[in-house]
Write a structure and sequence with these properties.
This protein is mainly α and about 290 residues long. Helix content is about 80%, strand content about 0%.
Length: about 290
């Protein structure tokens, strides 16, 4: 929602200030469609040249996340800690055999069913179940550092997938001012071809050419850059759920008591979204 509000504020302030300063919108609006076609078309073409269809789809999803906000709520982060803690407690108390049905078939697991949003999320489910399935297969004999390396590799892969759209948007932001100059130069070339025209006509043609430079800079620093920055913030928020899951698994494998396990996962959350340790402990006790 804030992204949409920000775009409206941006356009109103820029063009409103221009009009209040005595500027005429007529020449700008007349030149805008063709200049936008050149700049937007060049940006689209460059994106298609530099990416596969998979990355293009990720880019579209990335723009959607900017306007929808984080995928995981504060409660999702808490539930991920609680669910992983319960699974690790089951592993410690009853062994790998008792855990097997939960991590190999999470869709029918009674523990996972307590957290339907996480149960329906294949990324979170895989992040929890894959390392625990290894523990089941090895009957709990895997070295803790080996499990940590596997989880780190899985997190790194998932983060790369999530961060790719942000990198693409930032690349667009970096390219748009230059593409605006390309459109402006073409306008100047057109103007030079009509150098014998009266000054009034030449002035309009030069003004139209300058709209290209203006549009490229505005799209880069007023739109694409902030969209990329917001997507990065959203990714950081969503990716923390993976680190919380990792902390619970690794701390449990080290044999830490449950309060310390919960604190290891809780402390990694941003302060604004971090639950109280006492609340987590009460939740685990079923209060």
């Amino acid at each position: 929602m804030f992204a949409a509000i920000g775009i409206v504020v941006l356009l109103v302030m820029v063009f409103g200030g221009f009009m209040l300063a005595g500027g005429a919108m007529g020449p700008v609006l007349a030149a805008l469609p063709l200049e936008f076609m050149m700049i937007g078309g060049a940006a689209t073409g460059a994106t298609l040249i530099g990416n596969s269809m998979h990355e293009i789809k990720l880019l579209g999803a990335g723009f959607g996340r900017v306007f929808k906000g984080p995928k995981y709520t504060d409660q999702d982060h808490i539930d991920a800690i609680a669910l992983t803690s319960k699974l690790m407690k089951l592993l410690r108390s009853e062994g790998a055999v008792a855990l097997e049905s939960h991590v190999t078939e999470p869709a029918s697991s009674t523990l996972f069913s307590e957290y339907p949003r996480l149960q329906a999320d294949p990324v979170v489910t895989a992040m929890i179940c894959d390392p625990l399935t290894l523990m089941v297969v090895s009957s709990g004999t895997l070295d803790t550092h080996a499990v940590e390396d596997i989880i780190d590799s899985s997190i790194k892969t998932q983060m790369h997938e999530m961060d790719e759209p942000q990198h693409m948007i930032q690349s667009l932001a970096d390219a748009l001012p230059a593409l605006g100059i390309v459109a402006a130069v073409l306008g100047i070339i057109k103007t030079m071809g009509a150098i014998d025209q009266p000054p009034a006509i030449l002035g309009k043609m030069i003004g139209s050419a300058l709209v290209g430079t203006f549009l490229g800079v505005l799209l880069a620093y007023g739109l694409a850059g902030p969209l990329g920055a917001r997507l990065k913030q959203i990714n950081v928020h969503d990716q923390q759920i993976f680190h919380s899951i990792k902390q619970v698994i690794i701390a449990s494998l080290h044999g830490y008591p449950q309060p310390l396990v919960l604190e290891a996962a809780r402390s990694g959350l941003p302060p604004a979204h971090r639950p109280k340790l006492t609340d987590l402990l009460d939740m685990m006790r079923g209060r």
